[in-house]
Amino acid sequence: MNKEYIDKILEYTNLQNVWRVKETINLIASENVMSPLALTVYMSDFMNRYAEGKPFKRYYQGTKYSDELEVMSNELMGKLLHTDMVDIRPISGTIANASVFRILAEPGEQAVIAPVQAGAHVSHTKFGTLGALGIKQIELPYDEERMNVDIDKAIKVIEQVKPKFAVLGGSVYLFPHPVKEISNAIHSVNGKLVYDSAHVLGLIVGNAWRNPLDHGADVMTSSTHKTFPGPQGGVIAFKDKDLYKEVGKTIFPWFLSNHHLHRLPATAITALEMIEFGEAYAKQITRNAKKLAESLAERGFKVIGEHLGYTMSHQVLVDVSPQGGGAKIAKMLEDGNIILNKNLLPHDPPEAVQNPSGLRIGVQEMTRFGMKEDEMDQIAEFIEKIAIKKEDISKVREEVKEFRKNYQKVHYGYSSDLINGKYVNLLNLLI
Ligand SMILES: *Cc1c(COP(=O)(O)O)cnc(C)c1O
């Protein structure tokens, strides 16, 4: 028996759990935590099983409960997104994009995407999924002043190029992309509009961000684990019936065989939480992001987007080049138990990716742990102590740990008290 390895595996996993869940201020904009109830159902026998194909039309036996749960997950997500055409099978946001892009264009055909400065995800680009599918990328023009797609110039590009589809939505963005205007333009050349809501899904279902499906998008692709605090996974929601059918035929068998069934009950529980608490959760996130931006600016940081009110999303962008650059400051903050990522800012050249001038900050996870505006001010103070005042980092780390002790419970979600006495935990069946 390889006890040494086993002990190491247990040790690292344990250290990860305690450090990242209990002791750090996590500000990674693409992460979140599930509620105790979602986590409980996530750890189920579904994680051992297969269910190729669609509910009630599977290729294997033994799927009657996953069939029910898949239909239910699609239904609940559809309720939140105002459509009855949802497919929860993509196992990630990238797979959701691949499934949709592949149907909308053949290799060699063209797509227009949001400008990279306005936050487009790598999967929208020639370096990612779009490129892997052989679809040509054309970037829409950028309006520096509005930090967004340049609408007039974008319409001209679309009319000229006549692309098969346009992609909006992104990974680093503070303000909503112009869905209505771009959808009108792309529809006028018989193309489709894809909105990738991976980052903002939790804001959309909480009515703190415009639902792109209500404003002209034909299809919405997403992850289910960023501001939407579910298990890691993907989802596609449609307004276009033909597209719904076509994409449904290709997710399996083109882009996956099994779709990781333990996501289904956990996503359904998270959807129910968003139906009940989503609005309060999303509103608090946007208030917190604005407050954090203001507080950082007051303390002398160069916060992006001041002239536009800093942010409308869960994100805050800070230019830390005066403090030594994104790479250096992100590492110093990590040593102080504040976890975030360095990021290219709209004005950075693409080559600066290893040492960009910015930090990307997301407040969704700390909001879920119950933090409000006062706590955002406290977080700004910790960041100031490390990045500007150059205080002893190990001392700040202890303060961060102490502060974090008061925010250990998941809010806006269901507790394990709802588990009825008959529920049998997978682990208990095996020991
Ligand atoms: C995170 C992200 C993705 C990719 O999602 P995964 O679930 O990590 O594959 C796609 N699009 C956008 C805009 C993202 O931010």
From TrEMBL:
(6S)-5,6,7,8-tetrahydrofolate binds at A120, H121, V122. Residues 379-406 form a coiled coil. Its main location: cytoplasm. Residues 16-383 form the Serine hydroxymethyltransferase-like domain. Its EC number is 2.1.2.-. It is found in: Cytoplasm. One of its GO terms (cellular component) is cytoplasm. It holds the Pfam family SHMT. InterPro entries: PyrdxlP-dep_Trfase, PyrdxlP-dep_Trfase_major, PyrdxlP-dep_Trfase_small, Ser_HO-MeTrfase, Ser_HO-MeTrfase-like, Ser_HO-MeTrfase_PLP_BS, SHMT-like_dom. Keywords: Amino-acid biosynthesis, Coiled coil, Cytoplasm, Methyltransferase, One-carbon metabolism, Pyridoxal phosphate, Transferase. The record marks H225 as: Plays an important role in substrate specificity. GO terms for molecular function: glycine hydroxymethyltransferase activity; methyltransferase activity; pyridoxal phosphate binding. Pathway: Amino-acid biosynthesis; glycine biosynthesis; glycine from L-serine: step 1/1. GO terms for biological process: glycine biosynthetic process from serine; methylation; tetrahydrofolate interconversion. The modification N6-(pyridoxal phosphate)lysine is found at K226. Homodimer. Catalyzes the reversible interconversion of serine and glycine with a modified folate serving as the one-carbon carrier. Also exhibits a pteridine-independent aldolase activity toward beta-hydroxyamino acids, producing glycine and aldehydes, via a retro-aldol mechanism. Belongs to the SHMT family. This is Serine hydroxymethyltransferase. It comes from Caldisphaera lagunensis (strain DSM 15908 / JCM 11604 / ANMR 0165 / IC-154). The lineage of its organism: Archaea, Thermoproteota, Thermoprotei, Acidilobales, Caldisphaeraceae.
